[in-house]
Amino acid sequence: MSRHLAAVFVLLIAPGTALLAQPGSGNRSTSIRAGEACPAGMTEVRPQNCQAPTLPPPSIVDYRPRSTLVAPAHPVSKAKFPAIDFHGHPYSQLNSDASLTELGTQLDALNVRVIVAANNVSGPDLVRQMTLIRASATMKDRVRILAGVNFSGVGPGWAEKAVAQLEADVAAGAVGIGEIGKGLGLSTRKADGSRLQIDDPALTPIWDAAARLKLPVFIHTADPQEFWQPIDNTNERWLELALFPGRRYPADQFPSFETLMTERDNVLRRNPKTTFVVAHLGWHANDLGRLSRMMDAMPNVHAEVGAVLYDIGRQPRAAHDFFVRYQDRILFGKDSFQPEEYPYYWRVFETRDDYFDYYRDYHASWKLYGIDLPDAVLKKVYFGNALRITSRLLQGGWPR
Ligand SMILES: [Zn+2]
Count of domains in the chain? Predict the structure, then answer.
């Protein structure tokens, strides 16, 4: 019986068969040569044979297939160990004692003990926020602030002013520098109107001051590499680029991804006494081999995981090995403050779950897998590494 069916099947796909569709189905089909892609509107149904659907295809915005996979599922609402969110962006939460207290309730539900505000604030704003935090009965030890550096107008006299402001911000309570935004490199101009390169020597006094004051430098450079690519059917960030036109970086208006990476790496390499934390795994989460080489070459470099969970969770074995190997240099951070999104991170880091949803369709059209980190690694990623490189964070009371 099965042999008979197999024979029929072979007949159906015999080479040279022009029309593969079931008789009467009426769908269009065509053959292609080896290595060719099917024409638009068709998909390869057998080797080198393309066929068009008999129904109008849904748009990628609307197509949301329900997975029929039945597999063990272990959602994790609270982190297994208390976490430091090194890439926090609380804004309205830092406006009043009541909103700060409410932030504490939200963090408790996630087991985030400390949030580091990486909002690039400085001067009076930083003083105001630190005053509010210190006055809070419940939150005085749970929010810390990174100092912002204003990179606009770099020219003669800039560095002296910037270093003096940084020292004042540290005196006011700042625990590090950041988040240095992607504007540095992409768009920030010098006083003379030229693009401020990330590796401009005029910035060296800032990196020196960070080393002298023992401040980690949290830096976000560039964006996912696909943002520089043509927005076509092969771009895995098509939907995001279509939703957010500001994320496109046409070559005639912006430096290339590789130019920005080179400038960033020059800074990391030329300032070995400065501790850097590259945000978003340096946008190399899709190429952990490249990130490994970077971290091997530059022991002063640490990496933060915010907003690249889609790349970690799509390569669970490689990501597990990467986290184990660099367990002393990876920091938890979330970026955009959406309490309901943190549990996806816990699930990816702590479980062996297969094939589960990510929280943003427009980042990734694929599913995630747990990378099952050992407890010792989780503790370092969740809080140990942030504490070690940020001496001004409260060091006591963590589950060592
Ligand atoms: Zn950020």
Answer: 2
pTM: 0.92
353-387: per-residue pLDDT in tens?
999 999 988 988 999 999 999 999 999 999 999 99
Sheet strands side by side (includes 29-31): 29-31, 49-51, 43-46
Strands (E), 239-366: 276-278, 301-304, 330-331
Answer whether residue 61 is part of any domain. Answer: no
Rounded to the nearest angstrom, the distance between the alpha carbon of 76 and the centre of ligand 1 is 24
- How many whole angstroms from 336 Cα to the centroid of ligand 1? 7
Residue 57 placed within a domain: no
SS3 334: coil
Give 117 Cα–ligand 1 centroid separation in angstroms: 9
pLDDT in tens, 193-249: 999 999 999 999 999 999 999 999 999 999 999 999 999 999 999 999 999 999 999
CB 367 within 8 A of CB 358: yes
Mark the residues whose beta carbon lies below 5 A from ion ligand 1: 179, 335
